[in-house]
Amino acid sequence: MFKKITICLVFSLLLGTVWARDTGLVYHEIQVVDEIGRNVTDINDLYIYAPGGTTDAVIYSDRNLQNVITIPMTEDSTNTTLVDGYASWYGADGWDFSVTNGDAVGPLTNSGHLPRTSSDGTLVFPSYNIVTLPNDTGFLAYSAGGTTNLSGAGAIPITHSVVLWTIAGTVAGTLADGQSPGQILTVVCVAQSVGAGTLTPASVTGCGWATVIFASIGDSATFMYVDATIGWIITGTHGVTTNALLTQ
């Protein structure tokens, strides 16, 4: 009698696994980071939507689709998987989102509600950490928030915190004056073929650099805008080549 029960239980588990696979639902895992790659751990709520709008998606915490995750997801909600900025679920391979945290002016949302898939595993959160500059200039460092893209040559957008630059061949990028003193902007090369992207600032009188060259995927530079005379100063780099001005 014991052997029969054991065989039935094992058979039932196998059927449950097959059923989960046959639904077409896939496993998703995401990480929420700020504009310079730091993990965002103080998330107030995370909404997972069906693609194209703000209808709560039906998602599960387990592969057998027995435990429905309550939306919005918090670290204390029913069947939550949200821990320290990471979350995972089983659901349709197409989703939308909204997430808020304690430092944000507003929620991070998917602009245009474009469907995301299981390969889109990182959400870049617009962090608004305020830092007083170590002088008496009277302005604060800030970031505009969000992420945008530039493909090929052209003007680097200054309307977001992070610009993801796709470089194909030898291309030139220009960096216009910032929106206001204290603005923080990060440019990251996310795709690169033959050649490199050369970034030139509009104001070069006192910024200390003439060009920044992005030649590999992952190259990045972070700038802070001072004023129309000095322009953008470089506050951090990874992988890029910077060419200093010979004269001031």
Characterization of this structure:
The chain has 248 residues and is mainly β. The protein folds into two domains: 25-125, Immunoglobulin-like (Sandwich), CATH 2.60.40; 131-243, Jelly Rolls (Sandwich). Helices cover 8% and strands 39% of the residues. It has one helix and 18 strands. It has one helix at residues 2-22, and strands at residues 26-34, 43-49, 86-91, 96-101, 108-109, 122-125, 131-132, 140-143, 147-151, 154-155, 162-167, 171-175, 183-192, 197-201, 211-214, 220-227, 231-238, 241-243. Strands 7, 8, 9, 11, 13, 16 and 17 form a seven-stranded mixed beta sheet that branches. It has a five-stranded mixed beta sheet with strand order 10-12-14-15-18, with no helix packed on it. Mean pLDDT is 80; it is low at 1-21 and 128-133.
CATH architecture of the largest domain: Sandwich
Number of domains: 2
Percentage of residues in strands: 35-45%
Radius of gyration: 23 Å
CATH fold annotation of the largest domain: Jelly Rolls
- Estimate the mean pLDDT confidence: 80
Q: How many helical elements?
A: 1
Helix content: under 10%
- CATH class descriptor name of the largest domain: Mainly Beta
Strand element count: 18
Overview features:
Immunoglobulin-like; 18 strands; mainly beta; 39% strand; disordered N terminus; elongated; 248 residues; five-stranded mixed beta sheet
